[in-house]
Write the structure tokens for this entry.
Amino acid sequence: MAIEGPLLLLGCGKMGGALLAGWLDQGLTGSAVTAIEPNAEAVSAFVPRGVRHLASAAELPGDVVPKVVLLATKPQMMGEALPPLAALVRPETVFLSIAAGKTVAGLTTLLAPGAEDPAPALVRAMPNTPAAVGRGMSVLYANRQVGPAQRALCAELMAAVGETAWIEDEALMDPVTAVSGGGPAYVFLLIETLAKAGIEAGLPQDLAERLARVTVAGAGELVRRSDLAPATLRENVTSPGGTTLEALKVLMAEDGLQPLMTRAIAAASRRSRALAEGDEP
């Protein structure tokens, strides 16, 4: 990976750090990255690899012109963290935000508060936590100020930690957040509930938890590698008159897993919209 210009990373927490590690592992030169992060410990592992660390945006040189500014600080801190970066707004700089619930309009207001200010080139991305192991899924949306080369650059940066997809309607970020952003938590809950059901059936706790963890991880890898639809893979495991079929009769009943998951995704989507409208927790 190579970038023709500086890369500025605002925030080096779990997701920002995962992205930075992915870029460096993909061959990006550490000296191309400047990380703005008040917690020096969060950046300490990257400094020996050439990454420059600044405690605040106030320490940025006045003549810096980043190719891309990745906004990875917490959403509730954006109101304080973004205005000092307004001087970086120019056509050749694209801002890539991974802050959940922060719309392009909201980010634009923070970066270009005046009517006379130029609108920033902005890309919203929604990654998820498997990015930490290179198995993330990121969905991106760009405003009209973003050029083709900037879109390609943002996609390349997010692809360093997994797969990417684009949407052309920003409103879809709400269900994306509900399905993909929150999806790992739902899978972890599945592991928990599967293990507890095994314990209720008489299995020792350590064995039940191991069976649930390894089974879900293995099934995930199987579906990732397979060209078959999940429904087909499910059918391949289900023998007529067998034990799996009996369990699926419960899970696939009218009041089973599908309507429950549909309600869950709808609730998460509503909350995502509310956060975007400024309804803080």
Notes: The domain at 7-173 is CATH 3.40.50.720 (Rossmann fold). The chain has a mean pLDDT of 93.
